[in-house]
Design goal:
With 532 residues, this protein is mainly alpha-helical. Helices cover 61% and strands 4% of the residues. The longest helix is centred in the N-terminal third of the chain and has 42 residues, at 46-87.
Length: 532
Amino acid sequence: MDLLIYALIALGKFIWKNVQGSARNRELRKQGIDPKTIQLAEDESANEAVARIGQELAMLVGELGGGIQRLRSNLAKADELDKRFREQGSTGRFFVDLLDDRVRPALEAALRDLEEARAAVSGADPATAIDQIRTQEVGQALQVQRLADVRLAALAAMADWREHPEDALMLADADAIAHGVLQPFQDFARTHDMSFPLQRIVAAPADPGREAIWMGLLPGENPVIFVPANFKTDLFRTASVPHEIGHLLWHRVDGLADELRQLTARALPDNGQPAPQLLRAWLPEIFSDMVAAQLIGPAALHGFVGSFAPEPGTHHFRLVHTDDEGYLDEHPPAHVRVLLTAHLLHTMGFDQEVKPIVAQWQQLTGDPDNLLFYGRGGEAQGLPLEPVLDLGRQFVELIYNTQWRSVAGFRLADMPGFDMSPGLWARVQRFADQLSSGQPFNGDPRAVLAAAIEARARHPTQAARIARGLRTAVLGTDANERHVADAHYQRKKAARAPGAHQSLTAQLREGIVFREVLGAPLAFGRRDTRRQ
C-alpha cells in the first residue's frame, strides 16, 4: 500500500512539472524565445528567465559594441604608429613590417568577426544570440582587442624613444647585442633541428632594476627585452642582457624548464631545511645568472658587483625577498648571486680573474655570515649563509654538467661558442684595451659588451669614453652604421687618376708571377687536402 502511495505521489510530481514546464514554455514563446535554446533553473519562472536572458544579452552586446569601437580606435592608432615609424627611416623598418604584416591584419580580422557577430544577433532569438556571441571566433576577436591595447601602448612607447636619434641608436645597439649574445644558441638549434621559433629580439627602455624580458607582448616570436634606460652610460647594468637571455631559454626551449625542475626535485629534496627550499624557489634566477656567466665570462660578475653594490650601512644585499603573503621571491639576495656566479666562473677556469672581483665585493659588504629574513610579524631573523652557499655551489655544478634532452642531449657548455672560451676572452681583453684608450673598432657585439664592462671595471674614470666606444664598435640593428677604418678594415681608396693605370706588359708580368707562385706546389706532386 505504501509503495502505491509513493508511486502516485511521484507520478503527480511528474505531471505537475510537465504542466508547469509547458506553461513556462508557452510564456517564453510569447516573448519570442525558443524554449529549446535555453535551460531554465528548476524553480525559475518564464518571466524570471526572460529577465535573466535579457540582462546577459545586454551585457554581451555591450561588450561586443565596446570591442568594435576599441578595435576601430586601435586601427587608427596603428595607422598613426605606422606613419611615425616610417618617418624614422631604417631604424623604424622592423616596426613598419610588424604593423603591416601582423598587427593590422589581426585587428582587421577581429573587427570583421565582431561586426559579423553583431549583425547576426540583431534579429535573432535572445538565447540564440547569446550562443552566437559566445562562439570561439568572437572570444578570440575580443582577446585580440584586449591584447591590442597593451601592444599598441608598448609600440607607442618604442616610437617615442626611437624618435630621438641618440636613443634610437642606443636601442639599435641593444638589439644587436641581444642578437649577438643569443647567436651561439640559435646556430646550435638550427644545426640540431631544435624547436626554437624565435625571431628578432626587440629592446625597450626600463628603469634600472626593472630589466626583464617579455614574451607575447608583440605578436609572433619577437620577445621584448627591457634594458636599462641609461644603457648607454651605466655599463655595469648592461650585464642584464645575457641574464635575460637566460630567461628566454628557460621559457622558449621546449622542455628545458621541466628538466631543470625535475633535476631540482631530485637534487634538493624537501628535508625541512631552509637551504633546499630557498634554492628551489630561486631556480629561474640562478639558471639565468649561470647563462650570463657562460656567455660573457667574468664580465657578468663585474656587472653584478657594479649593479648590486650596497649603499654604506645597508643590508639589502643579503635580504631574502618575499611577497606580501610571505612566499619566497625567485630573486636570490645579491650576495648569493655574486658568490654562486663566482663559483661557476671558477669551475669554468676563470679562477684568477674571479679572485679580485670577489675580494672587491667582500670589501663592499663586509663578507657577512648570514642572510636576513623578515618574518610576517616584521621581525628580522638571521639565516646561516654557509649551508645555503655550500648546497648552492653543488647545485650550480650539477646544472652546469648536466646533459639536457631538450638541448639535443648536450650540456649548454658543449654548444660551440656558448661558453666564454680562452680565445674569446683574449679578444675581450683586446677590445677592452681599445675601448679604454679610445681606439675605434668594430667587433662581435657579445665580445664588445663583455669588453665594455671589463674596461669600465678597470678604468672607472673613463666610463664616458668607453660608452662612446661601445656605441661605435657595435653596429646597431637596422641603423645603417658604417664600419670604422681600423686595423682590419679600410675604406675604399679613391680611383686612380686618368693615365695612372698599369701598362699591359706590367699586368701580364704580374699575372705570370701569380700563376707561378700559386701553382708551384703542384710541381712536387698532388697536394694533400685532407684535414690534418
